[in-house]
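Thread amino acids onto this structure.
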């Protein structure tokens, strides 16, 4: 999924170690105590979600909010292998493992009081796989051949073959309200009012959305899990400036802020004891996208030359202060299918100049910019406003490329304008990030059919050999067979350099110390927010 300012969402890793840097989380057991009426948390957001329609939302921040408004069949655990009940109380595989039967909670209702039934599960699957609704995770459902309604609370998922991710794929995506959305023409689903006024089944419901200011969620009184959520209100305050957000965190005007800038970490640790810092390796990846539809970037050798001209370790040390690692693959290093023997393209600007000269690029008019056939090697690079590190990446890359005779015109755009251009392909290059899901799968980012909005292939990359390997890896019956195929596939993609693989950032999140039972994992910092509680003595 494309990460909204702080973070561009979707794939899934096997292991995550979370380090609580300032003795962050209270370790008390899950509490049934009643939280004082009016308890709340205010979370700072750099960018405003465009929609809260689960079929349309593409930003990580949108998904965090959606996961508080809607439920899935199961709750994925932090080992990314096992699940606990949510809307489904229990489930079982058939003897041949080609079907899974889910038994739904009879207490679960939509926030308008309508019961949740198996018909909602089948309707959700149909919408997720519908070409008009164009859900970005549609490929995750491609091996589900049918969702059979047995009775109101029993539903069976049928699969075309056995494979390791059957439970994950059945569970992916929140459940949608059939009684509301079936009245909306399929072609209008993406633009319907549901995106601004969702009716969910989760622990919270949308109370108000003041554009450009905040999104307020309040406790859903009809939530089927007794006693949850513990906090009455969750407010997402929209402030499109990271420095302002850090100031508000220090002043207690917001309680929580993701992606703390590296230059603010030491001060927060030493001077603000009421703020806990949580530090862990994130699921994010940062990179520079080359739009391969632009003839400047059409040739692999040109992209290699650009990669050799950019000093990734220097960027990481300068801008992330070491709180990131060099990206060496399209597969996130936390995923079991990442090839540990991957190596990066070396920083070698002299070789870069040689490659471009061999392709006919030279400075014929002495203006310091390479040209060929009357066209200067000049292009625009964009990113979103509000997060300084991306703007600084552009500045450093602009200088690196200037040294080899390539002119970059940097431009910063408002988030929704920026991401709209990426989705429509109306850009030349951009600094971007995405947050992978917990499944080892490259197809949603790199398959030729995954161009936005059907997927997140922002560079418009196409390689038939990579497509075949992705298909074979997804159809593998076991992880060992799939691993060999993913190794080969990621090497092909990396060697093609459709993007400049820059960094795998670490996540640092600030949260007021009074919040206890905060247990983030790689899925989201807010994965167990319904169980957060306030205790002024929390350590």
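Threaded sequence (539 positions):
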């Amino acid at each position: 999924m494309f990460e909204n300012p702080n973070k561009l969402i979707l794939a899934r890793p096997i292991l995550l170690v979370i380090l609580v840097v300032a003795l962050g989380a209270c370790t008390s057991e899950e509490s049934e105590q009643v939280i004082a009426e009016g308890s709340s948390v205010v979370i700072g957001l750099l960018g405003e979600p465009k929609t809260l329609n689960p079929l349309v939302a593409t930003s990580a921040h949108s998904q965090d909010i959606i996961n508080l408004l809607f439920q899935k069949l199961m709750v994925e655990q932090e080992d990314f292998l096992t699940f606990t009940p949510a809307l489904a109380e229990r489930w079982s595989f058939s003897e041949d493992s080609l079907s899974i039967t889910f038994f739904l909670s009879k207490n679960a209702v939509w926030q308008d009081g309508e019961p949740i039934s198996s018909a909602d599960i089948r309707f959700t699957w149909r919408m997720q796989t519908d070409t008009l609704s164009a859900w970005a995770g549609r490929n995750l459902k491609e091996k589900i051949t049918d969702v059979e309604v047995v009775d109101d609370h029993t539903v069976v998922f049928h699969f075309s073959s056995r494979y390791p991710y059957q439970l994950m794929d059945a569970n992916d995506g929140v459940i949608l309200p059939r009684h509301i959305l079936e009245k909306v023409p399929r072609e209008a689903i993406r633009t319907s009012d549901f995106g601004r006024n969702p009716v969910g089944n989760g622990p919270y419901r949308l109370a108000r959305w003041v554009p450009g200011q905040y999104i307020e969620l309040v406790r859903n009184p009809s939530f089927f899990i007794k006693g949850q959520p513990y906090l009455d209100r969750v407010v997402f305050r929209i402030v499109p400036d990271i420095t302002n957000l850090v100031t508000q965190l220090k002043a207690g005007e917001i309680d929580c802020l993701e992606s703390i800038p590296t230059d603010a970490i030491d001060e927060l640790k030493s001077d603000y004891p009421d703020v806990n810092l949580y530090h862990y390796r994130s699921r994010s990846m940062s990179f520079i996208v080359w739009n391969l539809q632009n003839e400047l970037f059409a040739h692999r050798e040109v992209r290699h030359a650009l990669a050799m001209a950019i000093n990734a370790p220097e960027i990481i040390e300068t801008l992330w202060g070491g709180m990131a690692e060099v990206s060496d693959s399209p597969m996130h290093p936390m995923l079991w299918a990442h090839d540990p023997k991957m190596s990066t393209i070396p920083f070698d600007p002299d070789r870069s100049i040689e490659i471009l000269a061999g392709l006919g690029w030279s400075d014929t008019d002495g203006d310091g910019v390479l040209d060929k056939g009357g066209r200067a090697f000049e292009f625009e690079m964009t990113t979103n406003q509000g997060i300084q590190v991306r703007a600084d990446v552009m500045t450093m890359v602009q200088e690196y490329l200037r040294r080899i005779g390539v002119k970059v015109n940097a431009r910063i755009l408002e988030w929704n304008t920026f991401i709209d251009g990426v989705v429509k392909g109306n850009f030349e290059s951009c600094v971007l990030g995405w947050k992978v899901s917990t499944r080892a799968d490259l197809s949603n980012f790199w398959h030729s059919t995954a161009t936005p909005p059907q997927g997140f292939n922002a560079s418009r990359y196409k390689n038939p050999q990579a497509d075949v390997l992705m298909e074979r890896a997804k159809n593998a019956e076991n992880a060992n067979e799939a691993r060999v195929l993913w190794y080969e596939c990621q090497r092909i993609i990396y060697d093609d350099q459709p993007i400049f693989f820059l960094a795998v950032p670490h996540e640092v999140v600030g949260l007021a110390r009074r919040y206890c039972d905060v247990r983030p994992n790689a899925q989201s910092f807010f994965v167990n927010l319904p169980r957060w509680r306030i205790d002024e003595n929390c350590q």
